[in-house]
Specification:
heterodimer; A: mainly alpha; Cytochrome C Oxidase, Chain A; B: alpha+beta; Ctag/Cox11 (Pfam 04442); five-stranded mixed beta sheet; four-stranded antiparallel beta sheet
Chain lengths: 516, 190
């Protein structure tokens, strides 16, 4: 039974080991994160000054679109799946994922999907230029010819996510060690279980909406074409029925990571474990009935505006429960501020800021002013960058010693945190102001009036980008050497993953652990 | 040893989840669009005005002479539609229940035979379900030979039950060029 990994490249091609696949997901997502970051820096370089300097407006549109698509589907989602692959079997005391071969497949189709999508940038007419939300008819009647490749790429990404989600649900239901009841599972496992259900429910809707686009473009249907009796607004409804649960897919696992890290460094058990579980489930449920708050300006009856406004505001309640639980966990704890903890505290503070700007956007009458401005950009970057990216970074620092057996460089980690923290706020905070003043998103030029704030944003973006190179360096340096980590790594952390040696052996829990 | 962990059957879970995936895909393509159309029909959302109403039914309303409603007509060409397209009158004042006929005029200004399709939209949305058309050019495709002009008729009647606060109704037609999509079909018919 006890044997190590195979040798050579085929180890990675044929592997069914959850740790190998988790690592591949994480490396892939980091590569996509850097690529999406480069796209973002092209955008920020163009917006450094008013006027058109660096890129053509058409290319600018492709950059905004590809930045969004690559970050959402290439960076954030695979990173969470990677963490799930690495950690969930170890957290529930399972030897591997329930469906290891499907696991291999769901990873290996991803690079091809993204190669296909990124290759559109080099095709005639350029890549997708209609925004990551690909509203019809921009993405049908007026789309570049490469849109078909984009559609197939999205189909493959969707298939990969669905297979990943099925695998995670089967693992959690079938592979738990004896005694690991549902309400004893770590919150990261719980949040992923709920996320996986969201994926199962909405990824097919995404596949459906791109299929309808495909049929409108090539097979003469008129789902979204008014001339044939269709309606472009239908696209927005179907898309956001997928899109709103999707944003929770990108944040719920983050809640789980932070709920693991904060108790460790506050040296107190997590406050309100069961309320955390119920809050996560409530958020997931509410995510299905708020989609139209993305489209208040599209023309809705007043009753619809009111319903979606209040339902959206309701989400603040379970989210507030979570934030207060994290704060209460830290309260009177004997806290230390290692890198994962710094990222987690920043997560709590900055995610709350993003949540508040979300509440402002939820107010239907006010949204008519904010809609499609940089205020929206500021809002969703405040929830996604400190939300998803910071929590993933925190998780990587937290579990890296377990993965590779070496401690990372704490000074470099803290430096990276402060660079990223400052870079992020310098980039995105001014966007609130220019947005409220009326600067539109997705436009390569802007009024002179917005010049100063945009210059500040661009400087912050390059600082934030530099911080990520530091993360890459720190991770590689840690893998290649460094102080040996103990099995526990941290000061009495909770969870089965800390009962196995560091680095975690290639096969863990071949006999199930005893869970009390 | 393996049975030790297996609480349920993995294939059964996968089958259930797989069925959910297929159901959601079918839901998105085959249920959501008709559901949306139905929803718009019931609420008048998007100002879609519905199908033709028979003249007999329309005449059975009676006329409410105690009030008048101003009906305005708009014409818009969708992008790349070169025809001249406009209403003959910009607005009429009618009583609820009073049958009215007006005309739009379209001229194909190009040297090619073309086919157009007009799509109506009406505001306020609340009025959409009280605006009945007994005849409308928007029910049909409009083939028009190169350089020809045609009158496009519209007969309508406003429901006497229309809410009192509605004083003005604006009816807009957008004309789409559907020559590309219909030509193969027309060729097949000929």
């Amino acid at each position: 039974m006890a044997h190590g990994p195979a040798k050579g490249f085929t180890r990675w091609l044929y592997t069914t080991n959850h740790k190998d696949i988790g690592s591949m997901y994480l490396w892939f997502s980091f590569a996509m994160f850097l690529l999406g970051g480069v796209f973002a820096l092209v955008i920020r370089a163009e917006l450094f000054e008013p006027g058109l300097q660096i890129v053509e407006p058409e290319f600018f549109n492709q950059m905004t679109t590809m930045h969004g698509l690559v970050m959402v589907f290439g960076a954030v989602m695979p990173a969470f799946v990677g963490l799930a692959n690495w950690m969930i079997p170890m957290m529930v005391g399972a030897p591997d994922m329930a469906l290891p071969r499907m696991n291999n497949w769901s990873f290996w189709i991803l690079p091809f999907a993204f190669m296909m999508m990124i290759s559109t940038l080099f095709m005639d007419g350029g890549g997708p230029n209609f925004g990551w939300t690909f509203y019809a008819p921009l993405s049908t009647t007026y789309a570049p010819p490469s849109v078909t490749f984009f559609i197939f790429a999205v189909h493959i990404m969707g298939a990969s996510s669905i297979m990943g989600a099925i695998n995670i649900i089967a693992t959690i239901f079938n592979m738990r060690a004896p005694g690991m009841t549902l309400m004893k599972m770590p919150l990261f496992v719980w949040t992923w279980l709920i996320t996986a259900y969201l994926l199962i429910a909405v990824m097919p809707v995404l596949a459906g909406v791109v299929t309808m686009m495909l049929m409108d473009i090539h097979f003469g249907t008129s789902f979204f074409d008014a001339a044939g009796g269709g309606d472009p607004v239908l696209f927005q409804h179907v898309f956001w029925f997928f899109g709103h649960p999707e944003v929770y897919i990108m944040i719920l696992p983050a809640f789980g990571i932070v709920s693991a890290i904060i108790p460790t460094f506050a040296r107190k058990p997590l406050f309100g474990y069961s309320s955390m579980v119920y809050a996560t489930a409530s958020i997931a449920f509410l995510s299905f009935i708020v989609w139209a708050h993305h489209m208040f300006t599209v023309g809705m009856p007043i009753a619809g505006e009111l319903f979606f406004m209040y339902a959206t505001m309701l989400i603040a309640v379970p989210t507030g429960v979570k934030v207060f639980n994290w704060v209460t966990t830290m309260f009177r704890g004997s806290m230390t501020f290692e890198t994962p903890m710094l990222f987690s505290i920043a997560f709590v503070i900055l995610f709350t800021i993003g949540g508040f700007s979300g509440l402002m956007l939820a107010i239907a009458p006010a949204d008519f002013q904010y809609h499609d401005t940089y205020f929206v950009v500021a809002h969703f970057h405040y929830v996604l960058v400190p939300g998803a990216i910071f929590s993933i970074t925190a998780g990587v620092y937290y579990w890296l010693p377990k993965w590779c057996g070496n401690m990372y460089n704490e000074t470099m980690g803290k430096t990276q945190f402060w660079l990223a923290f400052i870079g992020l706020n310098v980039t995105f905070f001014p966007m609130h102001f220019v947005g409220l003043a009326g600067m539109q998103r997705r436009v390569p030029d802007y009024n002179q009036f917005f010049a100063d704030f945009n210059m500040i944003s661009s400087c912050g973006a390059f600082l934030f980008g530099a911080a990520q190179i530091m993360l890459l360096y720190n991770v590689i340096a840690t893998i290649r050497g460094g102080k040996k980590a103990t099995a526990e790594v941290w000061d009495n952390p909770e969870g089965l993953e800390w009962t196995v040696p560091s680095p975690a052996p290639y096969h863990t829990f071949t006999t199930p652990p005893e869970v009390k | 040893m393996k049975e030790f962990w297996q609480k349920n059957s993995t294939p059964a879970i996968c089958a259930k989840l797989g069925v959910t995936v297929v159901v959601m895909f079918v839901f998105a393509i085959f249920i959501m669009p008709p559901l949306y159309d139905l929803f718009c029909d019931v609420t008048g959302l998007n100002g879609k005005t519905g199908d033709a109403v028979s003249i007999d039914k329309a005449n059975s309303f009676g006329i409410d002479t105690s009030r008048t409603i101003n009906v305005q007509f708009l014409a818009t060409n969708n992008e790349n539609m070169p025809w001249d397209f406009r209403p003959q009158v910009s607005s009429v004042t009618v009583h609820p229940g009073e049958p009215t006929v007006i005309n739009y005029v379209a001229k194909n200004t190009t040297v090619n035979d073309m086919v157009g399709q007009a799509v109506p939209s009406l505001v306020p949305f609340k009025a959409a379900n009280y605006f009945h058309k007994t005849e409308c050019f928007c029910f049909n495709q409009q083939p028009l030979k190169a350089g020809k002009t045609t009158e496009l008729g519209l007969s309508f009647i406003i429901d006497v039950d229309i809410p009192k606060y509605i004083k003005t109704i604006t009816l807009s037609y957008t004309l789409f060029d559907i020559t590309q999509t219909t030509t193969p079909k027309l060729a097949a018919i000929n």
